[in-house]
């Protein structure tokens, strides 16, 4: 039988139209996939997957050592990396991921003028911004949450002592990962949204991370040497990883992994408010940015 | 029912009056919106989509108010922007499926509609390659596909023939004609070239400096002008013999190249021409009503 392609003419669509919430969800999924280069050429997948794999290595090694130790009878209470410390220890990798992938989500649509196609559909500009922000937050949460989940599964598999404490710490660690993801995604998107060219965006996000970290670390060093411990602690508010780590120390009772714990007294609440302000402010700026872009 | 209606629509940008007291009513079909660059065509489309608010007046699309019901309007219309608007690093298929989902189509329907629509606009194997490698003609097709993928009731096509070579223009115009006739989707298509819209549109709206110059059916622009063009075989000799003969019969005749232009007095003019040609034993090559070109109307 020969196969022939018949032109069956134009067919109208009379199926369901799922409306705005579905449209936002579709945009979220698309951007989450984009953050890992899915649906794009191989070149776009290399960076995110390479970083994701490297992020997993310390967890995998830790689990391997734990398994080895328990198999040779060295006990069942080995805890190489704390759940809440994972993101802080591996912050350079996370910063690279953020720098490399924020422009993919924030500035790609602006650079190639894709926004009119979205804004001529049943979506508001706020929907659009929230979908992007949600997608990068989710991408970061996957990046941060997967390795500590591997740590926890490792603990279960090697039958560690105090599994209840492990479960609590792991759950707390996930909440911490979410806080890191929320704050970092906000900062990354805002910086990248104002640098239409991808290379500039990557550099700008890295610069914000490196400069804030370097400046804060030196201020903390100087303040410590002059025994001004309050100043050293408050300085942590100016670098994203120290800021969020201090919030999880205060709010979740995690052990501090940053150079400085939060200032005593008002420190915790103030740092938390700063996080909320960073997120809210970033969303407001992004909204303005895309509002302007959509009207052109 | 009008698909687009505006009442005293005005848009003031800082330093520029983009639209001024624009009142139009447009019936379903293919509508051409003509004007020079900067005449306010894109501004009008953006107001109709609810993307920018008008400074004065009001507008409705498919009976829905642009100020209050823009989300509903955007569910029912498609929009092809004038400028490049495609991400280079995804394939046409991937992008159009995504756009279909953002328009509210469930996953399976989005895939089917994307494949159908890309086929209708004439993209085949290349649709699996990243858009960055496409020619201008292919990009225009992808842009058209994203405007059609959710099966809208009305599409706004902003300068769809921009940047295309003559063959590409013809194909795009043929596609627009199919959309308006076979697909049954109303089209508002803009161009700064009157000639190309004359070929596909049923109704023309001409704006200049944000003001309405004319809004009427294409047939009204091109009504028979009352001149009959006749051409006979046997070159100049035959033409002149016929000319004399017709002049004697009382018609006003002017030579026009190889043929004659005859003012039509009434219905009998056609018979008179036929009889004269037969009496003189000439071979009639062509006899047609001369129509005004729209451009003549526009420039006069």
TrEMBL record, chain A:
Coiled coil ranges: none
Keywords recorded for this protein, A-Z: Membrane, Transmembrane, Transmembrane helix
Keyword Membrane among record annotations: yes
Protein name: Membrane protein
Transmembrane segments: 46-68, 80-100, 133-158, 170-194, 200-219, 266-287
UniProtKB/TrEMBL annotation, chain B:
The entry's keywords: ATP-binding, Nucleotide-binding, Transport
A molecular-function term among this protein's GO annotations: ATP binding
InterPro entries: AAA+_ATPase (IPR003593), ABC_transporter-like_ATP-bd (IPR003439), P-loop_NTPase (IPR027417)
SMART domains, per database record: AAA
Domain ABC transporter: 4-234
Pfam families to which the protein is assigned, alphabetical: ABC_tran
Signal peptide range in chain numbering: none
Cross-referenced CDD domains: ABC_DR_subfamily_A (cd03230)
SUPFAM superfamilies hit by this protein: P-loop containing nucleoside triphosphate hydrolases (SSF52540)
Family to which the UniProt record says this protein belongs: Belongs to the ABC transporter superfamily.
Protein name, as recorded: ABC transporter ATP-binding protein
Organism: Actinoallomurus iriomotensis
């Amino acid at each position: 039988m020969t196969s022939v392609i018949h032109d069956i003419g134009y067919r109208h669509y009379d199926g369901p139209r799922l409306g705005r919430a579905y449209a936002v969800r579709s945009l979220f999924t698309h951007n989450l996939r984009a953050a890992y280069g899915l649906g794009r050429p191989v070149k776009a997948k290399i960076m995110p997957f390479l970083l994701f794999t490297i992020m997993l290595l310390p967890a995998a090694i830790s689990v391997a050592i734990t398994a080895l130790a328990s198999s040779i009878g060295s006990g069942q209470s080995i805890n190489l990396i704390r759940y809440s410390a994972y993101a802080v220890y591996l912050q350079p990798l996370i910063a690279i991921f953020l720098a490399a992938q924020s422009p993919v989500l924030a500035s790609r649509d602006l650079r190639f003028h894709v926004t009119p196609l979205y804004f001529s559909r049943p979506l508001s500009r706020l929907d659009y911004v929230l979908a992007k922000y949600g997608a990068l937050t989710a991408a970061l949460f996957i990046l941060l949450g997967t390795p500590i989940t591997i740590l926890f599964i490792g603990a279960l598999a090697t039958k560690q002592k105090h599994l209840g404490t492990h479960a609590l710490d792991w759950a707390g660690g996930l909440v911490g990962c979410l806080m890191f993801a929320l704050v970092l995604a906000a900062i990354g998107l805002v910086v990248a949204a104002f640098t239409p060219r991808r290379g500039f965006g990557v550099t700008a996000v890295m610069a914000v991370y490196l400069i804030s970290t370097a400046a804060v670390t030196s201020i903390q060093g100087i303040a410590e040497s002059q025994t001004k411990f309050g100043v050293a602690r408050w300085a942590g508010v100016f670098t994203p990883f120290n800021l969020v780590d201090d919030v999880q120390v205060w709010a979740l009772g995690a052990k501090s992994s940053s150079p400085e714990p939060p200032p005593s007294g008002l420190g915790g609440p103030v740092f938390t408010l700063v996080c909320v302000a960073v997120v809210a402010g970033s969303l407001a700026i992004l909204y303005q940015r895309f509002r302007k872009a959509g009207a052109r | 029912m009008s698909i687009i209606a505006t009442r005293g629509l005005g848009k003031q940008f800082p330093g520029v009056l983009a639209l001024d007291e624009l009142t139009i009513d447009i019936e379903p079909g293919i509508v051409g919106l003509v004007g020079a660059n900067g005449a306010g065509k894109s501004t009008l489309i953006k107001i109709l989509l609810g993307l920018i608010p008008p400074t004065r007046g009001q507008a409705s699309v498919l009976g829905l108010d642009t100020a209050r019901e823009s989300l509903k309007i955007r569910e029912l219309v498609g929009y092809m922007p004038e400028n490049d608007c495609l991400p280079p690093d995804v394939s046409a298929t991937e992008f159009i499926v995504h756009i279909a989902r953002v328009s509210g189509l469930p996953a399976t329907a989005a895939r089917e509609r994307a494949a159908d629509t890309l086929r209708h606009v004439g993209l085949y194997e290349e649709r699996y390659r990243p858009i960055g490698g496409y020619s201008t003609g292919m990009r225009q097709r992808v842009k058209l596909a994203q405007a059609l993928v959710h099966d809208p009731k009305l599409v706004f096509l902003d300068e769809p023939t921009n940047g295309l070579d003559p063959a590409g223009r013809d194909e795009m115009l043929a596609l627009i004609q199919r959309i308006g006739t076979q697909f049954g989707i109303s089209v508002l298509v803009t161009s700064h070239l009157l000639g190309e819209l004359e070929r596909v549109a049923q109704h023309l709206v001409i704006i200049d400096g944000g003001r309405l110059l004319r809004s009427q059916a294409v047939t009204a622009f091109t009504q028979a002008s009352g001149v009959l063009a006749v051409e006979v075989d046997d070159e100049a000799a035959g033409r002149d013999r016929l000319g004399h003969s017709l002049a004697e019969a009382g018609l006003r005749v002017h030579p026009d190249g190889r043929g004659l232009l005859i003012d039509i007095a009434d219905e009998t003019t056609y018979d008179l021409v036929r009889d004269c040609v037969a009496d003189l034993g000439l071979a009639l090559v062509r006899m047609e009503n001369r129509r005004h070109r729209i451009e003549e109307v526009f420039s006069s």
